[in-house]
């Protein structure tokens, strides 16, 4: 289980990162991790069946590599802890230092500080791990991932696939499918297909259905095969022209029809599979089948009609589920679409943030990103609940913010949010329209209830059949025993009815006249008995439930008056206040809410952190005095800041113009003045800007060991976007440590060289003519 989880985890990390950096200690087997010319697996003895996978030629090397990766999988699984890996690394470094010290003592060349070095070897090992993640003596070659590491993982998948369950096959296949098409091997896809066919009969849970659907959508629905064969299309055309039997060569569609038909039968026959799928799961199944049906000549006409009818039933069920969802459930669905759908978009489309309006533009967005196919249907239900005033203000803003992540500008939500901020209540709506919408929702809920009733009737029929079988078994018993059983059941029912009537009739009343005539001992016994009766029958809870509606009716007018007296923005927390301003600024509607949010932002200036400061710098006009107040307050806390907060503060201060040198600060202030020419706010020079620059430089040097190269690269891109000129950008880059900048430049150069090398290899493959089929034979 650890190896299977480790394989899927490693593939998902490799798919997102071009180069892998290992944090595990080196072993003797990693001496073979060099640039080697690899051959197919068919050259090996024990794996001749799995041909086409790139592995090293020698069997001893392969055995050593498999042993290393077994250890690597067990150490990098989810059950291990970071402390164990740190301990193993430090122990390894300590052992190496001891060996070197012993060798030097044997030779007679022992230094004076050898004992001190041995005592601090463990601490040095931990410090080296914090400074850099490399524990190898030599750097790995640039093609280590593509030529050595991924082939060995493919070898592990091929040999361990028989032990995978259906869910594990889905996890490993989903992680492997994230790799580019040029790094994937068809042999692994064949192995996954083989074991998927074998295990499809044993699918009995919704989780297994989703694992099967994910594999089918990635590899066997036509898109993956077309992407993998895209680079070899020219070679295939040349071979078809030169071949003497071109008519016998037919290109496959890449769709495994038997899998789709078997899964359809499985979902229709077993009663517990479809009801266990949620709305998003149903849309994933619909998306997978619609992709396969879009491929031409993949199914026969009869199969197409059969699958289209099946899809129609799934769509109807999805529509009914949509109408039955409550407002908070719709918010959760939109949140899941925004998190996973925007992650599937390229970075360029995320940076552009083109706000979409109208149904046609949403359709184009869905065509670019199929993960958002359910979004138009969900937005229809959002509009209905919004017109019925079923959303609270926080839900309205949450939906607006989530849709802004999806690059969608929803007009109804925007207008409702702005009206709520100004007036503290919902916007006026037509009563006739609300009645029609309520009737529509009631009809859809009635249809869903009818389906549920039909399912309950089926279950009752099964239960009745089971009872009939039991009665037939009871009839074989003696009639006297049956009469006794019936009498006992009737007595139990009568006792239950009497207890229920007593609980309903007995009120919590006490005769005060009798209680006054009692002695102290009798009164104490009476109170104890009364307490036992209250606990046993729950009479106190009944009285509390009867008094609650009256208290709520008395409190409602008071709460309404309090809400009308104060604005909605005044009661918001500082973080939410800044998020509202930032979101409306991204949508281009901040000017409509600027007066409402001005006073709350001024009152909460002492509570804003570094993240809120960076967002406010992007939102408010450049001359707002609140920004200087927050910047000066946060500058005093720079030595105590975390690295995460410090980076946000640096971005905000750079945007504000407080980190430039005195000469460049004048030009930056002039540019800001031209930007805020039509604004009533006056520009203020940043207080103690020179001291702030020195503080930032010193803190960067202190945190140099914790800063990663990815963070430095992100800061470089942000500085270039923020700075008004290239000279200002270079001035901001001087704040960063020079060593990190040099390492970043070297890494960028290596990426460029590797990219050029890959392009040259692809051009050579396309330029070389394909050999005729007769010669190849």
UniProtKB/TrEMBL annotation:
InterPro entries: R3H_domain_containing. Residues 474-490, 541-565, 760-777 have a biased composition (Low complexity). It comes from the Eukaryota. Residues 464-473 have a biased composition (Basic and acidic residues). Residues 464-490, 541-567, 745-777 are annotated as: Disordered. This is Uncharacterized protein.
């Amino acid at each position: 289980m650890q190896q299977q989880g480790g394989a899927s985890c490693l593939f998902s990390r490799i798919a997102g990162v071009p180069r892998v950096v290992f944090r595990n200690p080196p072993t003797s087997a990693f001496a073979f991790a060099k640039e080697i010319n690899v051959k197919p697996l068919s050259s090996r003895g024990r794996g001749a069946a799995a041909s086409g996978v790139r592995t090293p030629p020698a069997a001893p090397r392969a055995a050593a590599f498999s042993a290393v990766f077994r250890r690597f999988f067990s150490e990098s699984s989810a059950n291990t802890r970071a402390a164990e890996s740190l301990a193993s690394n430090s122990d390894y470094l300590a052992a190496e230092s001891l060996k070197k010290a012993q060798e030097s003592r044997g030779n007679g060349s022992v230094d004076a500080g050898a004992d001190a070095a041995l005592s601090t070897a463990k601490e040095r090992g931990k410090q080296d791990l914090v400074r850099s993640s490399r524990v190898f003596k030599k750097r790995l070659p640039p093609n280590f991932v593509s030529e050595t590491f991924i082939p060995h993982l493919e070898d592990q998948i091929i040999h361990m696939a028989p032990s995978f369950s259906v869910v594990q096959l889905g996890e490993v296949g989903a992680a492997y499918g994230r790799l580019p098409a040029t790094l994937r091997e068809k042999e692994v896809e064949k192995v996954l297909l083989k074991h998927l066919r074998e295990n499809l009969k044993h699918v009995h849970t919704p989780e297994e259905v989703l694992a099967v659907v994910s594999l089918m959508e990635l590899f066997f629905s036509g898109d993956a095969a077309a992407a993998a064969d895209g680079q070899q299309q020219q070679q295939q055309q040349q071979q078809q022209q030169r071949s003497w039997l071109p008519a016998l060569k037919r290109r496959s569609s890449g769709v495994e029809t038997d899998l789709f038909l078997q899964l359809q039968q499985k979902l229709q026959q077993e009663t517990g599979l479809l009801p266990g799928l949620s709305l998003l799961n149903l849309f994933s199944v619909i998306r997978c089948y619609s992709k396969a049906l879009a491929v031409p000549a993949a199914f026969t006409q009869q199969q197409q009609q059969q699958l289209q009818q099946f899809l129609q039933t799934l769509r109807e069920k999805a529509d009914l589920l949509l109408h039955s969802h409550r407002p908070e459930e719709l918010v959760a669905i939109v949140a899941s679409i925004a998190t996973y759908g925007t992650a599937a978009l390229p970075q360029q489309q995320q940076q552009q943030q083109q706000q979409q309006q109208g149904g046609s533009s949403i359709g184009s967005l869905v065509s670019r990103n199929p993960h958002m196919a359910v979004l138009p249907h969900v937005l229809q239900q959002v509009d209905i609940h919004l017109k019925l005033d079923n959303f609270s203000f926080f839900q309205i803003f949450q939906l607006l913010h989530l849709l802004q992540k999806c690059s969608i500008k929803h007009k109804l939500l925007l207008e409702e949010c702005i009206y709520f901020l100004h007036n503290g209540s919902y916007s006026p709506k037509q009563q006739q329209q609300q009645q029609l919408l309520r009737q529509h929702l009631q009809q859809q809920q009635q249809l869903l209830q009818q389906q549920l009733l039909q399912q309950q009737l089926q279950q009752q029929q099964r239960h009745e059949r089971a009872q009939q079988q039991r009665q037939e078994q009871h009839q074989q018993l003696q009639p006297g025993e049956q009469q006794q059983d019936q009498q006992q059941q009737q007595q139990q029912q009568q006792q239950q009815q009497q207890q229920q009537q007593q609980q309903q009739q007995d009120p919590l009343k006490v005769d005060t006249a009798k209680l006054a005539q009692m002695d102290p001992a009798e009164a104490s016994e009476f109170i104890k008995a009364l307490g036992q009766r209250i606990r046993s029958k729950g009479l106190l809870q009944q009285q509390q439930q009867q008094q609650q509606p009256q208290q709520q009716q008395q409190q409602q007018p008071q709460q309404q008056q309090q809400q009308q007296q104060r604005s909605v923005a005044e009661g918001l927390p500082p973080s939410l206040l800044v998020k509202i301003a930032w979101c409306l600024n991204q949508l281009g509607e901040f000017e409509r809410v600027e007066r409402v949010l001005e006073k709350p932002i001024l009152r909460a200036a002492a509570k804003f952190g570094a993240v809120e400061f960076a967002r406010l710098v992007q939102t408010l006009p450049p001359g707002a005095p609140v920004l200087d107040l927050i910047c000066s307050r946060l500058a005093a806390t720079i030595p105590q800041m975390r690295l995460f907060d410090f980076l946000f503060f640096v971005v905000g201060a750079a945007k504000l113009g407080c980190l430039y040198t005195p000469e460049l600060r004048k030009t930056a202030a002039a540019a800001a003045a031209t930007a805020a020419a039509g604004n009533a706010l006056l520009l203020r020079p940043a207080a103690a800007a020179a001291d702030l620059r020195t503080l930032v430089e010193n803190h960067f040097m202190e945190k140099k060991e914790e800063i990663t190269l990815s963070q430095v690269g992100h800061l470089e891109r942000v500085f270039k976007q923020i700075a008004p000129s290239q000279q200002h950008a270079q001035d901001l880059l001087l704040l960063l440590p020079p060593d990190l900048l040099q390492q970043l430049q070297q890494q960028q150069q290596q990426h460029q060289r590797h990219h050029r090398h890959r392009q040259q290899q692809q051009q050579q493959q396309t330029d070389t003519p394909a050999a005729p089929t007769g010669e190849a034979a």
